[in-house]
Every structure is written in C-alpha cells, then in structure tokens.
C-alpha cells in the first residue's frame, strides 16, 4: 500500500537493558495509530529509531515497501517522518516565519537579501491551508506551548512530512489547546497522513485512535483496530493483568489543622490565597494551566518570597524564607517540571533518592555504599521503579520512572506536609494507581497532602476537598463528595486566548 510504514523485528539494547526485542509495527496512511505501554515499555525508543535518533541493533524499516535506513534525524525527515518532541526545538528569539524558513530562506533577486515578504506570505498561505491561526510575525518566545507545537507541525508539513510521531503531546497543553490539537490531528488524518500517537491518557487514546498497538517489556503485546480493542483490554495488555479498584479506598478522617496559608501574595501573580490542610487529609488543587497553582506551591516552599501573607504550622506562626526552611519544617514539594527543578539526570538514579537525605540516614560525613545501595533498593521497590540497578543514570530511565525517583526521595525525607504538583504526569496507568495508593497511605499515616492536578478524575477519585484557582486567586474550596466536575470546571474556567 502506498505510504505504508512498516518496522520489522526491531531490536535495541542499551547495555544490559533490552529496550526492544523484535518489534514489528505497521502504520497505514490516513490513520491515527496509538502506541501504548507502561513506563519503560519501549515506546519512545521505537519512535526514536523511526526518526533516525537511534540506530537499531537489528531489524528493518520499510516505507512504501522499500527498505530504508536512517542514520540521523535529517534522513528520516527527508523520507517524510517528523517527530514532535516534548521539548520543542524552536529558536525562541526568532519569529514564527523565521523559524519556519530557518536554513531554507527565500532569497530575493539581489544576492544576500532575504525576501521577507515572500516568506511571510507563504506562512500566511500555509496557515490558511491547514486552518492554523498563527501570527507570522510573533516571536516564538511569546507563544503558548500549544502554539509552539503548531509551529513545529507546520515546519514539518512544509518539509513534506507524511508521518507524524507525537510523544505525549498534550502533557504541557491546556485543555483548550489539547482540543485544538485533536482537531488538527483529525485534519491531518483526513489529508492521508499517518499519525503515531503516544499517550498515557486512555481517554485520548479512546477518542483518537484508529489502530492501537500495545508494547509490553519491549515486545508487542497486542495490535488491533481500535474498534476491536476497548480501553480495559488495552490496559490489561499493558500491565499484564486486570486493573481493579483504580482509586484506593479511603477512610476520610481528617485530624487537626497542620498547615495554613493566609492571604498569600507573590510577584508571580498570586493574590489573597488562603487555605488550610489537615493531618490525614488529601486536598486537591484544580485550575487551568497558569491559574497560579504551581505559583502557590512555590510560595509555600519558600522558592518565591511573599510580598504579603503568612504561614502557620499547627496554629503557630511559621517563617519560610527558603526551600531549606521548608524542608526543615517537614514540607516536601514534588515539582511539576522534573527535568529542570527536580532531578539530577547525570547522576545515578539511586543517588537522586538518597543524596538529599544523607543527614537523615546518618551519612552526613561518611558514605557507606552497601547501606546506601540497600536503601536505594528498598525505596525503589516501594515506588516500583524499573531499573536494572540503582546505579544507572537517571537520564536513562523512562519518564515515568524518573517521576517515581522523586516521589521516593520525598517518601524518604519523611515530610509531614507534602505538595505534589502533577505527580502522575507522564506515568502509566499501573504506576498512577501505585502513586494514588502512596498518597492515600501518607494521609493514613496522618500526613497532610496537597495534590495539584489537571486531571479532574484523579482529584475526584482521591481528594477529601478540592480547591479551585483562577487567575492567581483561590475561587472555591469544595468538599469532594458535595461537588461535581462540572462545578469545578465552572469555577476554573476563564476565557482562553484562541490559538
Ligand atoms: N539512552 C538510553 N540509555 C539507556 N537506556 C535507555 C535509554 N533510553 C531508554 N532506555 C531504556 O530503555 C527502556 C525503554 O525506554 P523508553 O523510553 O522507550 O520507554 P517508554 O515506553 O517511552 O516509557 P515512558 O512511558 O516512561 O516514556 C527503558 O528501560 C529505559 O530505561
Ligand atoms: Mg517515552
């Protein structure tokens, strides 16, 4: 069939790790093909091989029935394969048009002079063709994450891409932007393109996919049209068993107020934010991207100084001038952006758990390697990290497993008040369930938990109360069993700029 992509018997190992052990994968034009699997199943690795980032140890790639080899991303792009990365690589200081024509500028009749008008006209024309709304003169720095993705897509389209790989594309988008992306995906499919879509959000897979392939431990566990494989079946193939009781059963039994924030204001735009969290309580925080949830967490953790407001701990005034103060007081903050502000990816994975906790485990001055190794293994097991050993570089773990390292770190720090900012982002359904159980256990032990999340189902599945933020302010404090997702969305909603 024309335009058909086939990867045959792909094998890839990283040292002792068998990331892919003979994967055969076929994607047809005019379809959205979802690629599912637990963290570390090999999804990104398979797609990086397709995109020429990695060379396979064995196996072949066929396009239109012809064997192809891609030794670098340029080769793959030449063949019409485009990969939309999580971290986009656009030139921030250039405009949309300049980014689109980077390296292939249109020149005028006079040598060395660029034909700016022609490039802008073509950008407008291309946007019209695909129904994108973009200002060709806007510097990329001023665009939202969703708009940047559109620039990347347009760039690929202008280089005649026909196969689009999207690896968790919605993880940094607002709900409205995600909806826009789905429309675009459907339009590309209508134009006969192939879209390979990786996501841990099963509702997205259910809505978008025509075909679904499930990877498990580097091999294909199932592959079928979406009409023949429902989501529970996909999940069963992913984790290799039935997943029941997705949310833990909670005995909601909040104790005394542990932490209070009173009328917080910071330079990052939050104002008049007051809330309390009790011992044994899981409090959720909902709101659209940019509503001030992370900013609130940063204020509590001492990252961002207060312009106004105060904290109390068990009713007594509490001064938090730095993250060190917060940690001393027993406050933990699992950040949303694990790469930039949480994980040291060049260090061994195990160290990412233990290093900040050395004083606690009695290794302030002396490192006892065997003890450390044992502790790493114990905590790694608690959060079920998948690693060949705690000695592997954190960078070489899959995204979800990196997230688990950070959770393990704070579990070990034995904090009393834990703030989790999007703790399940990028992790698979099985691991999500484990994270929910961990949060429930922490509450059961009498700790106070604040969970920031953009996924309403998990807030409703887990929390005693839900706080809603909008435009830097706390606009609602709702008891979970007395509210509905509609009510939360109503409080959270603000007009969002159109893309
Ligand atoms: N550059 C690398 N060096 C060493 N090991 C790697 C490298 N990249 C991936 N791996 C390992 O290969 C396996 C597959 O990883 P991959 O990133 O493909 O998983 P994934 O399915 O994309 O997971 P996730 O859903 O968490 O993104 C994992 O065990 C991972 O630790
Ligand atoms: Mg991945």
The number of strands is: 20
| CATH homology group of the largest domain | P-loop containing nucleotide triphosphate hydrolases
Low-confidence stretches: 495-499
Mean pLDDT: 88
Global shape: globular
What would the CATH topology of the largest domain be? Rossmann fold
The distinct ligands, each listed once, are: adenosine-5'-triphosphate, magnesium ion
Q: What class do helices, strands and sheet pairing give?
A: alpha/beta
CATH architecture grouping of the largest domain: 3-Layer(aba) Sandwich
Strand ordering within the main sheet: 6-7-8-3-9-10
Number of domain modules: 2
Helix content: 25-40%
- Measure the end-to-end span: 36 Å
Q: Please, how many helices?
A: 17
Can you give a write-up of this model?
The protein is of the alpha/beta class. It is built from 17 helices and 20 strands. It folds into 2 domains: 5-239, Rossmann fold, CATH 3.40.50; 257-492, P-loop containing nucleotide triphosphate hydrolases (Rossmann fold, 3-Layer(aba) Sandwich). The radius of gyration is 24 Å and the shape is globular. Residues 495-499 have low confidence and may be disordered. The structure holds adenosine-5'-triphosphate and magnesium ion. Residues 14, 17, 19, 37, 39-45, 396-400, 428 line the site of adenosine-5'-triphosphate.
């Amino acid at each position: 069939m024309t335009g058909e992509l086939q990867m045959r018997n792909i094998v890839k190992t990283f040292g002792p790790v068998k990331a892919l052990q003979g994967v055969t994968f076929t994607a047809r034009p005019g379809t959205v093909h979802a690629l599912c699997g637990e963290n570390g199943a090999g999804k990104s690795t398979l797609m990086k091989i397709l995109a020429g980032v990695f060379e396979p140890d064995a196996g072949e790639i066929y396009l239109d029935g012809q064997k192809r080899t891609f030794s670098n991303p340029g080769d793959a792009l030449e063949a019409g394969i485009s990969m939309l990365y999580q971290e986009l690589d656009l030139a921030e200081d250039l405009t949309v048009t300049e980014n689109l024509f980077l390296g292939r500028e249109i020149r005028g009749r006079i040598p060395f002079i660029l034909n700016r008008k022609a490039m802008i006209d073509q950008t407008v024309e291309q946007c019209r063709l695909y129904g994108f709304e973009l200002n060709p003169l806007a510097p990329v720095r001023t665009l939202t994450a969703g708009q940047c993705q559109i620039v990347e897509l347009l760039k690929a389209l202008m280089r005649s891409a026909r196969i689009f790989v999207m690896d968790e594309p919605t993880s940094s988008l607002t709900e409205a932007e995600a909806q826009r992306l789905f429309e675009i995906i459907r339009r590309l499919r209508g134009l006969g393109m192939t879209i390979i879509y990786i996501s841990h959000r099963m509702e997205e897979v259910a809505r978008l996919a025509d075909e679904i392939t499930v990877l498990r431990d580097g091999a294909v566990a199932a592959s079928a049209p979406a009409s023949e494989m429902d989501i529970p079946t996909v999940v069963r193939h992913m984790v290799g068993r039935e997943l029941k009781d997705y949310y833990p059963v909670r005995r909601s039994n909040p104790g005394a107020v542990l932490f209070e924030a009173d009328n917080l204001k910071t330079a990052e735009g939050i104002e008049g934010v007051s809330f309390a969290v009790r011992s044994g309580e899981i409090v959720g925080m909902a709101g659209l991207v940019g509503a001030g949830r992370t900013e609130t967490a940063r204020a509590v953790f001492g990252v961002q100084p207060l312009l106004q407001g105060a904290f109390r701990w068990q009713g007594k005034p509490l001064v938090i001038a730095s993250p060190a103060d917060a940690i001393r007081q027993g406050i933990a903050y699992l950040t949303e952006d694990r790469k930039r502000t949480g994980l040291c990816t060049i260090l061994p994975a195990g160290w990412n758990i233990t290093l900040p906790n050395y004083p606690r485990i009695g290794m302030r001055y002396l490192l006892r390697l065997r003890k450390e190794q044992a502790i790493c293994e114990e905590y790694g097991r608690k959060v079920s990290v998948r690693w060949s050993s705690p000695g592997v570089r954190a960078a070489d773990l899959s995204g979800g497993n990196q997230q688990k390292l950070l959770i393990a770190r704070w579990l070990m720090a034995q904090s009393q008040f834990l703030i989790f900012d999007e703790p399940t982002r990028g992790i698979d359904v099985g691991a999500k369930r484990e994270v929910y159980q961990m949060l429930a256990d922490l509450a059961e032990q009498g700790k106070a938990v604040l969970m920031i999340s953009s996924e309403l189902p998990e807030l409703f599945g887990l929390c005693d109360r839900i706080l809603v933020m909008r435009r830097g302010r706390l606009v609602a404090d709702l008891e979970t069993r007395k509210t509905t997702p509609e009510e939360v969305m109503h409080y959270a909603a603000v007009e969002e700029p159109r893309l």
